[in-house]
Automatic annotation (TrEMBL):
PANTHER family for the chain: COBW DOMAIN-CONTAINING PROTEIN, COBW-RELATED
Listed Pfam families: cobW, CobW_C
InterPro entries according to UniProt: CobW-like_C (IPR011629), CobW/HypB/UreG_nucleotide-bd (IPR003495), P-loop_NTPase (IPR027417), Zinc-reg_GTPase_activator (IPR051316)
Residue ranges of domain CobW/HypB/UreG nucleotide-binding in the record: 6-173
Function (record text): Zinc chaperone that directly transfers zinc cofactor to target proteins, thereby activating them. Zinc is transferred from the CXCC motif in the GTPase domain to the zinc binding site in target proteins in a process requiring GTP hydrolysis.
SUPFAM superfamilies xrefs: Hypothetical protein YjiA, C-terminal domain (SSF90002), P-loop containing nucleoside triphosphate hydrolases (SSF52540)
Listed name of the protein: Cobalamin biosynthesis protein CobW
């Protein structure tokens, strides 16, 4: 008889901590063989590389959100992970714009081979709950979540954390409300819970989320150039991430809103550095121009003797 492979669905806004959560979950459960399906807007993926040192079995779905544009790729991806790799648990990380309701519905098409066991929606406590929840897709995800996990309580102010707690308790009282660090440690609890309330009748997401993404390959940069780039692209770019050689060391670049972090990259060095930029307020053309100008100005502005990094467009999609 075929065993049902449990699926954990993880969603939440851009930069809320989905990949960080998946990485910790996998790292803290070394006896469990995980398969991961990770979805990104752009045609150039970053999360797959960030997860690859920990998860051998990853399928990336790029070029659009799995709740709408790339929905038809989800079932084949989950089937591939569950059959080809014979994993114990499948984790699906949606893009930051996804409405997880249609995603859950797609997963149900694969019953009884896989079954959605936990639906975790992350709330980023560095954002005010009422700001984060202006997005309808995200609200749909929160409404159907079995678990609402609050991230970044270590750096958020207490008023925002209490705001999130109050919001989550009233908006979806059925959901289990946890600090994300509690979820990381409790795989057995996640899998034994029946808190995967995929509401099949909820309205599906609109076809376009209004996000645009642009990817660039980049040459070596200094930390100063990167910080200058981060400042120049401004607040209209909600998210920047990538893997770049910074001051001679391959680094994981993360910028959520205007908060930039540069950490050593632990995976296999890529052939070339790359950065992905995501915005919701700008047209694609404007984002392309902003990125191009900011990259050029950051490098030239920092050191006139240094040639501009050899960046070139690698596309990206809305
Ligand atoms: N301080 C803190 N930072 C976090 C936490 N979760 C995620 N981050 C940081 O937030 C940034 C975006 O995280 P990531 O997991 O890539 O977000 P995703 O876009 O939702 O997958 C990274 O710099 C993470 O290190 C958390 O609980 N606390
Ligand atoms: Mg991610």
């Amino acid at each position: 008889m075929t065993m049902q492979t449990p699926v954990i669905l993880v969603s939440g806004t851009l930069g809320c901590g989905k990949t960080t959560y998946v990485r910790t979950l996998v790292r803290d459960n070394p006896g469990v063989r995980f398969g991961v399906v990770v979805n990104e807007f752009g045609e150039v993926g970053v999360d797959g590389d960030l997860l690859s040192p920990y998860v051998p079995d990853i399928v990336e779905i790029r070029n659009g959100c799995i709740c709408c544009v790339t929905q038809d790729q989800l079932v084949p991806a989950v089937r591939e992970v569950s059959t080809r790799y014979a994993v114990d648990v499948i984790v699906i990380e949606t893009s930051g714009a996804a409405d997880s309701t249609p995603v859950a519905r797609q997963i149900s098409l694969l019953a009884p081979v896989v079954s959605l066991r936990a639906h975790i929606v992350i709330g980023d406590c560095t954002l005010a709950a009422d700001e984060a929840t202006r997005d309808r897709s995200y609200c749909n995800a929160l409404a159907s979540a079995g678990i609402i996990a609050l991230s970044k309580s270590d750096i958020a102010d207490t008023a925002r954390i209490s705001g999130w707690r109050a919001f989550a308790a009233s908006f979806n009282p059925r959901a289990l409300l946890l600090d994300i660090r509690q979820c990381e440690a409790t795989l057995a609890t996640l899998l034994s819970s029946s808190r995967a309330e995929a509401d099949g009748d909820a309205p599906s997401a609109h076809a376009a989320h209004g996000y645009v993404s642009v990817s660039r390959t980049v040459g070596d940069m200094t930390e100063r150039q990167l910080r200058s780039l981060s400042e120049r692209i401004g607040a209209k770019v909600l998210r920047m991430k990538g893997i770049v050689r910074v001051d001679g060391q391959w680094s994981e670049i993360q910028r959520v809103r205007t908060r930039l972090t540069i950490e050593p990259y632990e995976g296999r060095p890529p052939r070339e550095g790359r950065l992905v930029f995501i915005s919701r307020e700008l047209f694609k053309l404007s984002l392309q121009r902003l990125v191009k100008e900011s990259l050029a100005a950051s490098v030239v502005g920092d050191d006139p003797l240094m040639p501009a990094p050899g960046y070139r467009a690698t596309g990206g999609n809305g």
